[in-house]
Amino acid sequence: QVQLVESGGGLVQAGGSLRLSCAASGLTSNTYAMGWFRQAPGKERERAAAISWSGATTSYADSVKGRFTISRDNAKNTVYLQMNSLKPEDTAVYYCAAGLSITGRYSYWGQGTQVTVSP
Fold first, then answer.
1. Nearest alpha carbon to residue 8 among 75, 93, 85
2. pLDDT on residue 31
3. Strands across the sheet with 78-83, in order?
């Protein structure tokens, strides 16, 4: 079965950095787009960043552009989210997801990892 396992979340001060990782297993091929979504309490889920299966195409929410970088290592079945210049408003549960395209439906989801940014 498909499993996506996130790691790397935690508590950081504003202006700091964190690197999230998502290890995927059980996917039948590497031809999945991968996305990082986030959801803060009382807010709708937002797609923060996404990357095509080849890594050639990336997409970012306006709120994270210039601060977050998504990347993937298909040999390791792992996708990363480097988060720099973190702000308190970045506080959320971050989820990794796999789908057939960046803008399409995401079929597989991880359990989420908490990121908390203190002022």
1. 93
2. 82
3. 3-7, 18-25, 78-83, 68-73
In the predicted structure, residue 27 carries a pLDDT above the cut 90: no
pLDDT single digits (tens) 83-104: 999 999 999 999 999 999 999 9
Q: Average of pLDDT values for 26-36?
A: 84
CB 75 within 8 Å of CB 42: no
N-to-C CA span, the chain = 40
Q: Which residues contact 81 (CB under 8 A, 6 or more apart)?
A: 19, 20, 22, 36, 48, 49, 68, 69, 70, 94
User: Of 48, 37, 52, 41, whose CA–CA distance to 112 is shortest?
Assistant: 37
Cβ contacts of 28 within 8 Å, gap of 6 or more: none
Residue with tokens 């990357």, as numbered in its chain = 51
